[in-house]
Amino acid sequence: MSRKIVVIGANSAGVEAAIMARKTDRDAEITVVTDESVPTYSRCGLPFVLSGKIPSFEKLIVYPLSLYRIMKFDLRKETRATRIDTGGRAVEVETKAGEHESLEYDALVIATGASPFRPPIKGLDKEGVFTLHTLKDGEGIARAMKDAGSAAVIGAGYVGMEIADAFVTRGLKTTVINSQPTILAKTFDEDMSLEVQRRFEERGVELVLGRRAEAILGGDRVKAVVAGEHEIPADLVINATGVRPNVGLAREAGIEIGVTGGIKTNRRMQTSAEDVYAAGDCAETTNPITHSPALPLLGATAVRQGRVAGVNSAGKYSTYPGALFSVVSQMLDFEVGATGLTESWAREYGLDTIAGKIRGHTRAPYYPGAKPITVKILLERESKQIIGGQIVGGEEVTQRINVLSLAIQKNMCWYELVKADTCYAPSVCEASEPIVMAAEMAARKF
Questions:
Q1: Which of 189, 267, 392, 419 sits in a 20 to 30 Å window from 33, CA-based?
Q2: Which residues are part of the catalytic machinery?
Q3: Which domains are seen in the chain, by residue range?
Q4: Measured distance CA(414)–CA(160) in Å, rounded
């Protein structure tokens, strides 16, 4: 008999799991369940449609429906999984029309993702207040932007700052409110955060930091946001305070939930239930530096976890090494990226660190188009290993973060990185590679 595989969720982790399961087992019966009408679109691309960098939301759809037919998936759109029976190996589902069905499985992949967090802010339900998580959210914000002159963004993570980019690019007077004293605080130390902050302030974005949004004023429709002593006028408000993993189905099925709030998994992305795997924003993994539980909530991580879960659900063997929280983004006219630990994060785990920072250029300074770049590298003092990196630059941030991520994964020490055989051409890079120079700066402190 053919193996029956059910995947709950049809975005990054879920569809990658289904695709890898199909590549591993050509004969498996694979059912993909999603409560959305459009499967597999890029949530990460939503702010860039709002800014106009991407012309339409339709461009974010990753796979056409023909792919699901070619891969012989039984795609159940607008269908909600209501219960997982791990003993009976079945998933109960309900369609939009109210029809119920029980889907039997030999292996199950839970890829239920995450949902926007709703902070205790009075007035959060007023007209003109949005989250940005789905295509429908994006379309609603795009319509609201047409009649708005000012906007407030609550939260200064990557999504919040990308939305602020979109608003100021479209000519809206934009204010970002953040309860923490810096922006991008999860992956950037204060000194590197200030590099980003300065660039946004130069573009006219007002930053209200170290203040919680307490209330949203107005009648039925938003008029302003109160944060401490500040009352910030706003025709449009975005709640960008993060997301929380969707683990209700798993918890109700008796599947173990980890300390981060995600579904606890091992290196095979297997949960506490036999033949049940989890991947993506709902899944807890480990940090390979600290060996502690981690909940990355990142798209690229979701894809990698989904691939591992898919192979294992099809009866083969694959492992996931853990998440370094590697992240990059383009904001305004520059790029940011980080991987591994920050100094403050390292201190929480009792790690003694040394930091090296260098300001350089993305090309030879005399070559037209050369842009500034700031690189910070973090070393663990005793082992001399690289444990973190942060970059702010005009271009070419992504591959440098990828190099640092690989260096961390391979337990590379600073003296190995500084001997790297890096390339040079004035039109594309400096003779002295900035990440190598940052490692040398850190080494001088030993």
A1: 267
A2: 44
A3: 4-39+60-114+244-313 (3.50.50.60), 118-241 (3.50.50.60), 333-443 (3.30.390.30)
A4: 34
